[in-house]
Batch of 3 targets.
Target 1
Amino acid sequence: GIQVEQSPPDLILQEGANSTLRCNFSDSVNNLQWFHQNPWGQLINLFYIPSGTKQNGRLSATTVATERYSLLYISSSQTTDSGVYFCALRNTPLVFGKGTRLSVIA
Amino acid sequence: GAGVSQSPSNKVTEKGKDVELRCDPISGHTALYWYRQSLGQGLEFLIYFQGNSAPDKSGLPSDRFSAERTGGSVSTLTIQRTQQEDSAVYLCASSLGARGYTFGSGTRLTVV
């Protein structure tokens, strides 16, 4: 089946720092999404981004489908950014990576 | 409703008992998904419903797991003869099409 690999598995940032999270996948992408799971377990859809670049506030994402990777950028990180970031792809159902656990410390 | 609602939020059960977990999706969402998340792990797909089509059960780990969706809305995930390895957070999501998944808050199941 399709493989979804995320890196790094864990990341600790000082508040205000920037970071890049990576998602590599083994198959062609027809649907790629990024999610944030907060420390209370709630999953929030951040981006639907099968190709190109999107931005939403301090977050942006880029998918290069031909090279089978996607990047999530977090700028000026805040403690509320802490949690686990998942990328997921394929249509039905979504296949999730194992996530990147981000801790932002004040 | 405004979001995906799951109940109960927490469930502790004895090994060998049956449990039912409920998911109430967003009104009008035709697709409904069940995932399982073990402690510190990613999301494991269990089952998927789309409209009136036969469900995709390819992720169910054993025949002790089953799910139904009544009237194209509420879904119930049933685990029979629970085992300790069934302990996890069970997450439900709904969507209209392939994008825009909305997840519920999950049911944390503990089998003792």
Target 2
Amino acid sequence: EAQVTQNPRYLITVTGKKLTVTCSQNMNHEYMSWYRQDPGLGLRQIYYSMNVEVTDKGDVPEGYKVSRKEKRNFPLILESPSPNQTSLYFCASSLGLAGGGEFFGPGTRLTVL
Amino acid sequence: GESVGLHLPTLSVQEGDNSIINCAYSNSASDYFIWYKQESGKGPQFIIDIRSNMDKRQGQRVTVLLNKTVKHLSLQIAATQPGDSAVYFCATYNQGGKLIFGQGTELSVKP
């Protein structure tokens, strides 16, 4: 089954404690991205990657890091989480402009206390 | 900068009626558009897409119309069902390869 998986699905943590949210896709997609979704602000892109070792900033990259060492994985790293990073996070993958839209993961709900 | 916007944040329709959700975009060079559906507690799900060389594309109970002259696209859902209740987003890629989403329209279907 074609899918994007994220882990963990739910996480409560404290300010300053480094965390990683993993993302993996099994569709051999080159394009992957991370979004956060907040009430009233919609979906905002954090980082995206057009291929292995190629990453670029989205709209709200501050406080986040990503890496793309393998095609299937695109982890999101919060080196020092803060309460304003409390949000719902989605990973997605796609063929990019080749079409077909983005496949989204199920989401990770993060709370930073 | 580039933007994609939906005209109404909420839309309420009677079950069985047709729904029309509208979206406007700012960049006349945009050439690929996607509609997503997001149900409560889930990630956005691809519904249908359209390229700028087309004016209309149909799927199962859904139709997307593209008017490049006024930079407007719409999603039409025929015979709306309770399972269609969700937030609908339009989106397009900018030339840098970034996907830009509209704010979303919440569709409520009354039985």
Target 3
Amino acid sequence: NAGVMQNPRHLVRRRGQEARLRCSPMKGHSHVYWYRQLPEEGLKFMVYLQKENIIDESGMPKERFSAEFPKEGPSILRIQQVVRGDSAAYFCASSPRRLAGGNEQFFGPGTRLTVL
Amino acid sequence: QQQVKQSPQSLIVQKGGISIINCAYENTAFDYFPWYQQFPGKGPALLIAIRPDVSEKKEGRFTISFNKSAKQFSLHIMDSQPGDSATYFCAASHDQTGANNLFFGTGTRLTVIP
């Protein structure tokens, strides 16, 4: 059973370009979370999605960032007009159908975005 | 603001010793407390987790101690090994409006010296 897949693993963009990060959840998982990790810091929640629905985007910056999880295909985190401050590791996690009282999240290997 | 506070920032332990990492939280709605282990260049991997209805959970060399009244929980690694050298994150989540996003501590970089 393959784990959470993320690609690309490394992404280099120049300021002003767009970055697209992809996440394929574990088989059977319908919940996807995106987190951002700045150097030497913990992970910060960005957005929580189910198939075709954004459930919670309270951690997403108001501008330039968007996320989707279509009926078919991977979840995509999109960053438009990237700036140097967007340089970070972006992790995707997936979980099975939610159980009451918390759920186990499985993390992918991350995409390391570098903005030049 | 940081919802989960973690200490120490870094920890050096001799092989065979006990590693102890502490976390504290404020939100009493939190009801799930996992610990994650992260190696350089990798994603976090779940080590062990606890819910507030128990005060301790043990899995192999890893133990979580949970103090609900103090709103604190800690990870103990017994017989620490060089292979345990990694960054450890505590986290917390709560069941609210269907969201279960994790709030992470800032991490503890553990080095186990042979």
